[in-house]
Amino acid sequence: MLSKEQNELLCRVGPGTPMGNMLRQYWTPALRSAKLVADGAPERVRLFGQDFVAFRDTNGNVGFLDEGCPHRGVSLALGRNEECGLRCIFHGWKINVDGQVVEVPSEPAGSNLASKVRVNHYPVREAGGMVWVYLGKEETLPPFPAFEFTNLPPESVVVRKALNKCNWVQALEGLLDSSHVNSLHKSWLQTPQPVQGAFAGMLGDSAPRFEVEDRPYGLNIKAKRVLGDGTLVNRYTEYALPTFCFIPNALETLRVMAFPVAIDDYNTWFWEISYNPTGGPMDAKTSDELRNVGIMGDDPDNYYQPAWGPEKVWGQDREMMRQGHFTGFIAFPFEDFAVQESQGALVDRSKEHLGMSDVAVIRARRLLLEQVQKFREGEALRGQAAPVDFGAIHGVHEILPAPAQPHEVNS
Ligand code: FES
Ligand SMILES: [Fe+2]
């Protein structure tokens, strides 16, 4: 449980908020690289309650600017993207990827206005099929989190995102809370499918024991299950600040990570990355099955069906439930989205009742609030203070035979 004040501090991300300031100090995934074509249409991007425009210039370089034209605020997303710059259609000012105003055709010849105009533009990196942006303090540039998928060939990686209509912390908590799987995703786990082996043993113990350890980049969350015959099923979820979650599965050629990125206080991009860590191509069948292709939408920039909101009870099917399905949702991501959005756009955590199984959620909240405090005091943030091997972080799903000696079950 948090006080109302702590909850506000944790959740609000707009310009000038303490959490918003802290989150901006990390590299942020902004959009899929494929959305930007050289001299093609610019893209509007909203992050942390702020509006930006991204474009790829004639030479292939990506520019990331405040959306409003520095002249009189017209959206640069309406602009013409040509000859190495974005030209505002209102009076024709042209701005390049470095944020320099290179032409002001509305001014008299010889005007030096262009050289005096400052355009807010932001450092970008392209990696893993995504454009990443750094929106933090100009004088600091944090280490880039070169996660495993960012170093793989494009055919080994599938990147997609969906609109989650709730605060980003609700989405993050869903990813860290391994104990909901036995309830919310029970029917999905029971359905025969190629990925079933990926989560073997999870249904055999509905009350896993959790252990949470600090890591230089975040947390390691271990969920321990003991099956009826004594077999141990240990799942290690890794959490790298500020929101990157590495979800364990038992397959050797498929790894999954997912993370929320706040659009504003009430809307979130839910990113999901699946990849083959061997560098080989993704196994299409397994990948499609895991991603529920054919059931979910197939737009990689928003695979969630926006029509299925609260007014349609998120698409829940009571007939399916009568026939034995636990939740009445046709795909497991719908289950996650429905429960998260049903908490409300920004849930009041002063009213909740937490138990033993919520330890990972509690630790993550505490860690995020600690980072806010660190940032206020001018200290280095976790994951930025000492070198981190980001490429070595991944979830682990471990199945161990019953030990010879009886082990503690309810410690
Ligand atoms: S508002 Fe953009 S050029 Fe005038
Ligand atoms: Fe879930």
If you had to describe this structure to a student in words, what would you say it looks like?
With 411 residues, this protein is of the alpha+beta class. It has 2 domains: 36-133, Rieske Iron-sulfur Protein; 148-400, Naphthalene 1,2-dioxygenase Alpha Subunit, Chain A, domain 1 (Alpha-Beta Complex), CATH 3.90.380. The chain is built from 10 helices and 18 strands. The strands form 4 sheets. Strands 11, 12, 13, 14, 15, 16, 17 and 18 form an 8-stranded antiparallel sheet that branches. A hairpin with a 5-residue loop joins β7 (94-95) and β8 (101-103). 41% of the residues are buried. Residues 69, 71-72, 74, 88, 90-93 line the site of FE2/S2 (inorganic) cluster.
Key features of this structure:
411 residues; 19% helix; alpha+beta; 24% strand; binds fe (ii) ion; eight-stranded antiparallel sheet; four-stranded antiparallel sheet; single chain; globular; Naphthalene 1,2-dioxygenase Alpha Subunit, Chain A, domain 1; binds FE2/S2 (inorganic) cluster; Rieske Iron-sulfur Protein
